[in-house]
Amino acid sequence: MKKIKIGIPRGLYYYMYFPFWCTFFKSLGMEIVLSPTTNKGILNDGVRYSVDDICISVKAYHGHVKYLLNKDVDYVFVPRIVSEEKHKYNCPKLTALPDLIKSAFPEDKDKILTLNLGPFQREEYRFAFYTLGKKFAVKESLVKEAYKKAEKIQRTAERYLHSGFNTLQVYEKIDDPSSLLKNEKNKNNMLVGVVGFPYDVYDTFLSSSLLKRLNDMGIDVLVSNMLDYNGLPKYRDFAPRDLFWYQGNYVLRAGLYFLSSTSIDGVISMSSFGCGLSSIYTKMMDIYNNTHHRKPLLHLVIDEQTGEAGMVTRLEAFTDLAKLKKEGEL
């Protein structure tokens, strides 16, 4: 019997939940087809098929979906993730992602496999995946077992993520995460905190390989999603109320933590041009930094016109400043 092929776009929530999705579908006997890392062709397709006023990450996602639709897949998995924490919600454009994709590719709308997740309730998440599994006439017992395996793998990935390994390192070793323990960590003299939504930071094309560039400059990097959200201080003396958005809260708390930490030598934020959530948390980081620690802080904003030369120049200036600050010359 021919296996059902599920296409997973390598963008947006892929950088958070791929271990779960991959394990769930594979456990049901399906074949996973991943789009490649973002490249110029994929981004150009994304710009061509998406609306103008969305961020570059969502545009690139359209390109990934188009790539998969051109392949021999039965479905492309595009979930609607409304919420990841109780009383917190996600970007409206990400919430409307299945609708945007179906509108962009109306001739293939029946190939868009989706499910609704949220507002966050553990039982609702489980029920949504159980219902999705039954869609393929899979026995309920197999669906439940697949869900348990997926939860276990996701927790394992997050445990290693919170142990000092970034998302790309964890995904590379997802079949044998214990091998990550063999890697050297924090071997350089400088440590920089990078804050931003995972799909902005870890997409090597959109970010111009920010993390690798910093490593090549002799700098260790701690990314915001490598911190345990539930263990981060809430800084109520500065921000009495949470932001409306879960990912915005996550990045803001991580950013304030980096700015407060004596072990972090500088902080870089990366965001997409036109992102309303980013405009709020980056401004709050500026205010906090100016009134508290005055640590080297660099904001990088990406869009279709971002060039590597400009980013390299800004990174070099930032690292020079951070080194002088660390050595007490500023």
Radius of gyration: 20 Å
Please report the number of helical segments.
Answer: 13
What integer is the average pLDDT? 87
Query: The CATH topology of the largest domain is what?
Result: Rossmann fold
Please provide a written account of the structure.
This protein is an alpha/beta fold and 330 residues long. It has 2 domains: 5-161, Rossmann fold, CATH 3.40.50; 186-326, Rossmann fold, CATH 3.40.50.11900. It is 46% helix and 12% strand. The chain contains 13 helices and 10 strands. The protein has helices spanning 14-27, 40-49, 56-69, 92-95, 97-104, 122-134, 140-161, 167-172, 198-201, 210-216, 246-260, 276-291, 308-326; strands at 5-8, 31-34, 75-77, 80-81, 112-113, 116-117, 190-195, 219-223, 266-272, 297-302. The strands form 3 sheets. The chain has a 4-stranded parallel β-sheet with strand order 2-1-3-5, sandwiched between helices. Helix 1 links the parallel strand 1 and strand 2. Helix 1 runs antiparallel to helix 7, helix 2 packs across helix 3 and helix 6 (122-134) packs across helix 7. It is globular, with a radius of gyration of 20 Å. The N and C termini lie far apart (68 Å). The model has no long low-confidence stretch (mean pLDDT 87).
Which helices and strands, and how do they pair?
Elements: E1 5-8, H1 14-27, E2 31-34, H2 40-49, H3 56-69, E3 75-77, E4 80-81, H4 92-95, H5 97-104, E5 112-113, E6 116-117, H6 122-134, H7 140-161, H8 167-172, E7 190-195, H9 198-201, H10 210-216, E8 219-223, H11 246-260, E9 266-272, H12 276-291, E10 297-302, H13 308-326
Helix pairs in contact: 1-7, 2-3, 6-7, 11-12
